């Protein structure tokens, strides 16, 4: 696996308790603080960060008029449920 391309170093101030947890995890895992922080950021980006971006995309779709009529959606769901029940 190829090493990722890294940015220039950045400064980040974190609460003391968060840093203590990062350091404890890094020590236990025999990894660097950077490794722990990058993994934590990747996890955030894949979960909560992705949710935020999906919500923004939905809002942009609504602003652009890309909407579906609720009654039509519910009718289609009812039709699909009837097909599955048959």
Automatic annotation (TrEMBL):
The record's annotation in SUPFAM superfamilies points to:
Ribbon-helix-helix (SSF47598)
Return any one Pfam family short name: RHH_1
Ranges where the Ribbon-helix-helix protein CopG domain occurs: 12-47
- Enumerate the InterPro entries for this protein: CopG, Ribbon_hlx_hlx
Tell me what this protein is called. Transcriptional regulator
| Superkingdom of origin | Bacteria
Query: Which species expresses this protein natively?
Result: Rhizobium herbae
């Amino acid at each position: 696996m190829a090493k990722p391309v890294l940015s220039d170093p950045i400064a980040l101030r974190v609460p003391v308790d968060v840093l203590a947890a990062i350091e404890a995890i890094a020590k236990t895992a025999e990894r660097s603080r950077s490794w722990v922080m990058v993994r934590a950021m990747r996890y955030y980006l894949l979960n909560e960060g992705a949710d935020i971006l999906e919500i923004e995309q939905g809002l942009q779709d609504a602003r652009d008029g890309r909407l579906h009529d609720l009654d039509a959606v519910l009718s289609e769901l009812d039709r699909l449920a009837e097909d599955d029940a048959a």
